[in-house]
Here is the input.
Amino acid sequence: MVEKPLEHEQEEIVIPTGEIVAENVSEEVYMAQYDADFHEYVRGYVIKMSPVHDTHDELTRYFAFLLGYFLDYTQIGRIKQAPFVMRLEDISRREPDVMVILNDNLPNLKPTFMDGPADSCIEVVSPETTARDRGENFKNLKKVA
Here is the structure.
């Protein structure tokens, strides 16, 4: 006999923020039709990403340069930058601005995506993406950590 979860135990359905361009999309369809453009995938939703602002680009390149130099010098890991996808279970396909993948985690680094959480992520928060960057993305990472 299968017990039904109590009402307070049912998972809350949360629609991601941002401009949703498609719903009920499988991972395979997302990777085939949307991944080449500037979109992200969250629980079947395809979200159009905002254009990159000059300040955002400068900060991202600065962090990537510093971390990249350190990782090249120490040989303890690798760095990836958006638009490189980070696949978190079946929850999402996000593109953090900067990802650090340490050597122990390198087997999860695939040619076109990171299969699972990176060891560290940097997300440069823009005014128009605050809710997503400080809310949804952070909660999704905590779920898989």
Notes: The mean pLDDT is 81.
